[in-house]
Amino acid sequence: MSARAATATAALAGFVGVLVLPTAAEAAQQHDTPVVIAHRGASGYAPENTLQAIDKADKLGFDWVENDVQRTKDGRLVVIHDTNLARTTNVEQIFPGRAPYNVGDFTAAEIAKLDAGSWKGAEFAGARVPTLTRYLDRVDHNHQKLLMEIKAPELYPGIEKDVLRVLGEEGWLNRDHVRNRLVIQSFSADSVRTVHERRPDITTGFLGTPDVSDLPRYAQFADQINPSNGTISDWYVAAVHAFKGPHGKRLQLFTWTVNDAATARRAAGLGVDGIITNVPDVVRKAVGGRE
Q1: For 117-144, how does the pLDDT look when each residue is reduced to its tens digit (9 = 90+)?
Q2: Taking the mean position of all CA atoms in its chain, how far away is CA 81?
Q3: Active site residue: 39, 177, 196, 241, which one?
Q4: Which of 81, 177, 196, 241 is flagged as catalytic?
Q5: Fewest Cβ atoms closer than 10 Å to its Cβ: which of 7, 55, 66, 252?
Q6: Residue 37 belongs to what H/E stretch?
Q7: What is the rounded distance in angstroms from the CA atom of residue 229 to the CA atom of residue 2?
Q8: Taking the model in full, what pTM does it have?
Q9: Has 39 been annotated as catalytic?
Q10: E strand or H helix at 132, and its extent?
Q11: How far is residue 109's CA from residue 176's CA, in Å, rounded to a whole number?
């Protein structure tokens, strides 16, 4: 820890009852190589958020994959990043005149007709937008782990309940999955809090870079603070690590989206716990990160 980071940690001592001075073992762990998470699957090499991207991450040897979950017009959960279908599917050709092509304006059956792979390359033609059910089945088949983002929950009131229902139906709320293979995150603090309140045993993460003064509040319902790599410093990482989350463990920090060796080495040097990347093999080679 740098002198500046140490000073920052000491300054946080004013948060009585929240600040956690790390043990020697915990301090050493802060400098372990970070976990490497395949962003939207290995999306640098296969169409993002598809089953092909999960499989590519698996072939590269990575356990953790990240995805994005939204809800269709008829209440099904699908895995896609953008709230608009146009960038990563052929929706404009299949359903002309249905602009603005928002995910929530289409049924699951309509979305199932779309090609979600050709934009990435002809070899991926015919790839589909997976339902969350199919996605979970594939992650399980590959013995992988999931960092799930609830995308734009303000567009889908009650989506947290839907997500937890599907996770339960697919066996993802048993002891092994919850303890070792699942994290749920969102840019919405309200959404993260809702998941924590409904299932306090699930590991949760807040996407963003809250002010240090706000960290005690986030630590009540989030186990991770997951900021953009351009917003962090050794000072900020140390500040996050100074708090314990709702499960009584030191807050973790996963940063995104890191796609080159130099940035990966910088992030690892700051002591982050995880690096989210489109090209996990590049990051692993740069920092020797854990899979």
Answers
A1: 999 999 999 999 999 999 999 999 999 9
A2: 11
A3: 39
A4: 81
A5: 7
A6: strand 35-38
A7: 18
A8: 0.91
A9: yes
A10: helix 132-141
A11: 32
